[in-house]
Amino acid sequence: MKVYIKKKAFGSKVVFSDFSFTIKDGVTSMIMAPSGWGKTTLLRIMSLLDKDYEGEVELKEERNIVLFQENRLVEGISVLSNLLALGVEKERCLETLTSLGLFDERDKKVSELSGGMKRRVALSRVLLLPAERYFLDEPFTGLDDECKKETADYIAHRLKGKTVIVVSHNKEDGALLKAENTIILGE
C-alpha cells in the first residue's frame, strides 16, 4: 500500500503536508504518535473512509475492515447476538468469544459489560469478518496487561499473513502484535 498525502486539513489547521510512506502487504505495521497528532485521521484516509484530502492511497483492492476507537456495539442485545448479526455461523462466534475470554459473557447484554469486555466484543466482530486489510484503532483500550497480551496473541494468530495497520500511542502494542514496521508521526 502506498500513501501520499499532499495536504490534509481541518479548516485552517493542516494535519498532514507532503507526507508519504509505503506499507508492505501481509504484515503488521504500527502508526504511533501522541494523542491529537492525526493517527485516526491517517487511518481513515488509508482505509478509504476519508477522501477529503489532496493525495493518493494506492490499494490493490478495497477489502478493508476497521476497528474504530468507539466500540460501535448494540448495547441492548447480548454479546453473542452482536456477533451473530454479522451473519457468521454460531460455532465460529463461540470459538472467537472463547479465545478472547468472553464465553461466559455470551448471553449478557453488552450494556452490562466492563469497558475492556466491550472492547474485546468489538474486536471479536472485526476478527470474524474476512478482509485483506485490518485497520485497528487503539485495539487494547481498557484492557489490563494480562488481557492485552492474550488478546494480542489471538489477533497475531488470527490475522497472520494479513495486512494489519494498528494505531496506538503505546510502543509495547507493536511488540505484542509483532509489528514489522512502525510509522511515527511528528518525526
What does this structure look like?
The protein is of the alpha/beta class and 187 residues long. Helices cover 31% and strands 26% of the residues. The strands form two sheets. A five-stranded parallel sheet has the order 5-6-7-3-8, with helices on both faces. It has a three-stranded antiparallel sheet with strand order 2-1-4, with no helix packed on it. Strand 6 (133-137), helix 5 (145-158) and strand 7 form a beta-alpha-beta unit. Helix 3 packs across helix 4 (115-128). The longest helix is centred in the middle third of the chain and has 14 residues, at 115-128. The two termini are 21 Å apart. The model has no long low-confidence stretch (mean pLDDT 93).
* Ends apart, CA distance between termini: 21 Å
Q: What overall form do the CA principal axes indicate?
A: elongated
Mean pLDDT across every amino acid position:
93
Strand order of the largest sheet: 5-6-7-3-8
Please tell me how large the radius of gyration is: 17 Å
Gist of the model:
The protein is an alpha/beta fold. 31% of the residues lie in helices and 26% in strands.
What secondary-structure arrangement, pairings included, does this model have?
Elements: E1 2-10, E2 13-22, E3 28-32, H1 39-46, E4 54-58, E5 64-67, H2 79-84, H3 90-99, H4 115-128, E6 133-137, H5 145-158, E7 163-168, H6 171-176, E8 181-184
Parallel strand pairs: 3-7, 3-8, 5-6, 6-7
Antiparallel strand pairs: 1-2, 1-4
Helix pairs in contact: 3-4
